[in-house]
Design a protein that fits this description.
Strand order of the largest sheet: 4-3-2-1-5-6-8-7
CATH architecture: 3-Layer(aba) Sandwich
CATH class: Alpha Beta
Helix content: 25-40%
Largest sheet: 8 strands, mixed
Radius of gyration: 17 Å
Distance between the termini: 14 Å
Length: 256
Amino acid sequence: MTTGQLHPRPDSLPPQRGSRLSPYGGDRLLFLAEALRTFQDTGALAPSGPDLVNALAVPATSRPNRPISVLEVGAGTGVVTRRLAQVLRPGDRLHVVEANPRFAERLREDPVLAGRRPGVGLRLSACRVEELPEAAGAPGPDGGEEGDGDHGKGGGRYDVIVSGLPFTNFEPAVVRDILDLYLRLLAPGGELTYFGYLGTTMARTLTSGPRRGARHRAVVRLLRRFEATYGLGERTVWRNLPPARAYLLRSPGPYA
């Protein structure tokens, strides 16, 4: 995949079903309610817009001629999840990780996910990505996971990881551990996408004080080093609230 592929062609993704926002008119209200309740983990006041969703889902459309496995971390109300479910093909597997129980319940009830193509496996883990059995090298899912796929058992790796985690809300050590985990979970040559909002460093310093501003800058430096090592490109998405930048990275090794 090249940097240009972060700008998908109009015909490279199928049209989104349902409304422009989501199949649920209340998604934005739920997201806002959870952001006000626990902004540290939510990291935004609204779900990602369609342009950002498309940029994050692009690796799932640039793929080998075989079934692929996709991990989405921090799915929220499911705007990216639904996009992934629409572009995946029979034989593919989608593993969705969402720690917020209210968001996880919304995902369980989602009609687009329930109506995905036959043969596309779906697994939902209502936990943090660090708590996955794969993260500890355990042989399979535990009772906290549900779904119809065996995806990830036996320490299996993923071809694509899409991360919606608000990295700049976390401590640098936590971000470093998550990035290291992503590299362990990716297959050789597998691809990772994540995003960050524009202008957050100054906003965090002005609104939260110098200590949190320093923590924010430390996380940004960590991300830039990670991108310098593994990055393939980035795309600025102005038509998002707030504007954001999507990053595309690749794990070391040849892609099978």
